[in-house]
Automatic annotation (TrEMBL):
<dbReference type="InterPro" id="IPR032466">
    <property type="entry name" value="Metal_Hydrolase"/>
</dbReference>
<comment type="pathway">
    <text>Amino-acid degradation; L-histidine degradation into L-glutamate; N-formimidoyl-L-glutamate from L-histidine: step 3/3.</text>
</comment>
<keyword id="KW-0378">Hydrolase</keyword>
<keyword id="KW-0408">Iron</keyword>
<dbReference type="InterPro" id="IPR011059">
    <property type="entry name" value="Metal-dep_hydrolase_composite"/>
</dbReference>
<comment type="similarity">
    <text>Belongs to the metallo-dependent hydrolases superfamily. HutI family.</text>
</comment>
<keyword id="KW-0479">Metal-binding</keyword>
<feature type="domain" description="Amidohydrolase-related">
    <location>
        <begin position="79"/>
        <end position="423"/>
    </location>
</feature>
<keyword id="KW-0369">Histidine metabolism</keyword>
<dbReference type="InterPro" id="IPR006680">
    <property type="entry name" value="Amidohydro-rel"/>
</dbReference>
<dbReference type="Pfam" id="PF01979">
    <property type="entry name" value="Amidohydro_1"/>
</dbReference>
<protein>
    <recommendedName>
        <fullName>Probable imidazolonepropionase</fullName>
        <ecNumber>3.5.2.7</ecNumber>
    </recommendedName>
</protein>
<keyword id="KW-0862">Zinc</keyword>
<dbReference type="InterPro" id="IPR005920">
    <property type="entry name" value="HutI"/>
</dbReference>
Length: 432
């Protein structure tokens, strides 16, 4: 018999709502005040949307006599919104373990890149891989992210650097979006590196006159759905003027600007992003004070990537300065063959320890602010009525265990839920 609702989660020790007033993002002190309720239940409808969340007694009486496809007794457990990973490069072939060894021995990221490795190495392997191979590995990676609590993830192309492979990557992302329940925001990153044999100016021309035109055609036919445009704005990669031209061309065709900037050298990427009204700028290890102020004014979010600074032993992004200046700070894993990390709990932990964020700030950055960076904070990023029913249920009586525990999330995360459907259940018992 058909049931009235999809899911009831009852008796949770804590439910972290994050927001309660439809905020599109949180900044400054607001990030210290994320909403948490004790002894609460919630209901998700058959449309996948959150119908109600509140104290156990209120939900009991409001839904007296109602039937549910699934009921989870979350006694002693905590609920948080599904985590949002705002920056990943998950479509590629060929790992770079050998380069990790070189970097441990002292080589810098740019030394490896300029010697033809790094992104170039991955481009060679990704160009050779079939769509089926790329799809299979992408799905495994997305499942792995899901098991660590990620329910919405930004996925970039960028290991093709020419039309065919970029389209192949975007098609693989498109296919994963159809086949899996995890939410995906798709990013065209054809300007991830200057392809061998071309200058940056020639590559810029190819991107604007060939690649973007083709994407536009495929998007208008409904064959591809691309959300964002990205460029690696960096010394020796794309300079400010090439970056501006590519981002503007993407914006003109309706893409959201979300790009790599000020990572290894101060490039004035933050200032450029603010001027172009970028929704997000990632990395920012080398951002200037002016850049921070411009981002705060323009409401261009900063996607900080603690794994990159950790693995490459870079200086840490200036999270505290950005938070103090009112920048919208989000987090991402930067999953890629250089930074092989699928886990947002690990990312939040690193953000707290290395970038000096508090646990509340880190959770806000990995939920509502990450949603904002992808233009999705009206539907994602908090547990508010009418938003998508994406949740993580933790086998612990305080939500902070999600960040406090360093690794081992396979034992802490009990359920991951997307649109009210259980997409992952862990039956291991916990003893911590
Ligand atoms: N910095 C540029 N892009 C990636 C690294 C990609 C790669 O090395 O394959 C990043 O965000 O860290
Ligand atoms: Zn990146």
């Amino acid at each position: 018999m058909s049931k009235d609702f999809r899911l009831l989660v009852k008796n949770a020790k804590q439910v972290v709502l994050v927001c309660t007033n439809g905020e599109k993002f949180l900044t400054g002190k607001e990030m210290q005040n994320i909403a948490v309720i004790e002894n609460a239940s919630l209901v998700i409808g058959k449309d996948g949307l959150l119908k109600a969340v509140g104290p156990v007694d209120r939900i009991d009486s409001q839904f007296q006599g109602a039937s549910f496809e699934t009921v989870i007794d979350a006694s002693g457990m905590c609920v948080t919104p599904g985590l949002i990973d705002a920056h990943t490069h998950p479509v590629w072939a060929g790992d770079r373990v050998h380069e990790f060894a070189m970097k441990l021995a002292g080589a810098t990221y740019m030394e490896v890149h300029q010697a033809g490795g790094g992104i170039h190495f991955t481009v060679e392997h990704t160009r050779q891989a079939s769509e089926a191979e790329l799809l299979a590995s992408l799905k495994q990676r997305l499942q792995r992210m899901l098991r660590t609590g990620t329910t919405l993830v930004e996925c970039k192309s960028g290991y093709g650097l020419q039309l065919d492979t970029e389209v192949k990557m975007l098609s693989v992302i498109e296919r994963a979006r159809k086949d899996l329940l995890i939410g995906i925001s798709s990013t065209y990153c054809g300007a991830h590196s200057v392809p061998k044999g071309k200058t940056a100016a020639e590559a810029t021309d190819d991107i604007i006159k060939v690649q973007l035109l083709k994407l536009k055609e495929k998007m208008s036919k409904g064959e591809l759905h691309v959300d964002n445009i990205d460029v690696f704005c960096e010394k020796g990669v794309f300079d400010l003027e090439c970056t501006r031209a590519i981002l503007q061309a993407g914006k003109d065709m309706g893409l959201q600007i979300n790009f790599h900037g000020d990572e290894l050298h101060p490039m004035n990427s933050a200032e450029l992003g603010a001027e172009l009204e970028a929704l997000a700028i990632s990395h920012l290890e080398e951002v200037t004070d002016n850049g921070i102020a411009a981002m705060a004014r323009a409401k261009s979010s900063a996607i900080l990537l603690p794994t990159t600074a950790y693995i490459l032993r870079l200086k840490q992004p200036r999270a505290r300065d950005m938070l103090d200046a009112g920048v919208i700070v989000a987090l991402g894993s930067d999953f890629n063959p250089n930074a092989y990390c699928c886990s947002m709990p690990m990312v939040m932990h690193l953000a707290c320890v290395n970038m000096k964020m508090s646990m509340k700030e880190a959770l806000a950055a990995a939920t509502i602010n990450a949603a904002y960076s992808l233009g999705k904070s009206h539907t994602h990023g908090s547990l508010e009525v009418n938003k998508q029913g994406d949740l993580v249920i933790l086998n612990s009586s305080r939500w902070e265990h999600l960040i406090y525990q360093f690794g081992g999330h396979q034992e802490l995360i009990k359920f991951v839920i997307v649109k009210g459907k259980v997409v992952y259940e862990n039956d291991r018992t916990l003893d911590y």
